[in-house]
Amino acid sequence: MKKLGRWDNNNDDEASHYKNRGKKTRDWIRIARYAIYGGFAIVAIVVLIVFIPRAGLSVEIFETGEDLNTISIKINNNNLQEIHNVTVAFDDNIEKKQIYNSIGPFSSIFVTPDKDDIDFQKIIVTADNGKLQTTKYR
């Protein structure tokens, strides 16, 4: 008795036209999945390489030396949490320090020195009641 239908027979010779006949197949779904995982890994590595060295409290000085001498200081908070009690002192002049309430995560503020402190040589920035401190020389 002959069975009808391709699912009923166990003979591989009759259903050989459904096979690849020795050709190597590619599983495109598996390849796409590994490509996506690889992309996430590359993005994670780049983020770690870029943000870990810049984490913390940093200070940048912007100075123009034209007819009108202007100085701006950018204080960056590259932490995940907000920092409080930020103080800025120029040249160990602790009596005339500038006090700022807080800086949010991954944000910055601009500070301008007073007229008396325009010729400073270093900036001392302290935050979180002395837990974070950085010094930048001109």
List the helices and strands and how they pair.
Blueprint: H1 28-51, E1 56-65, E2 69-78, E3 83-90, E4 98-103, E5 107-111, E6 122-127, E7 132-137
Antiparallel strand pairs: 1-2, 2-5, 3-4, 3-6, 6-7
From N to C, what is the helix and strand string? HEEEEEEE
Distance between the termini: 97 Å
Computed CA radius of gyration, to the nearest angstrom: 32 Å
CATH class of the largest domain: Mainly Beta
Which second-level CATH architecture of the largest domain applies? Sandwich
Question: What is the residue-mean pLDDT, rounded to a whole number?
Answer: 82
> What name does the CATH topology of the largest domain carry?
Immunoglobulin-like
Could you say which overall geometry the principal axes of the C-alpha atoms support? elongated
Instruction: Summarize the biggest pleated sheet.
Output: 4 strands, antiparallel
Count of DSSP strands: 7
> Which bin fits the share of residues in helices?
10-25%
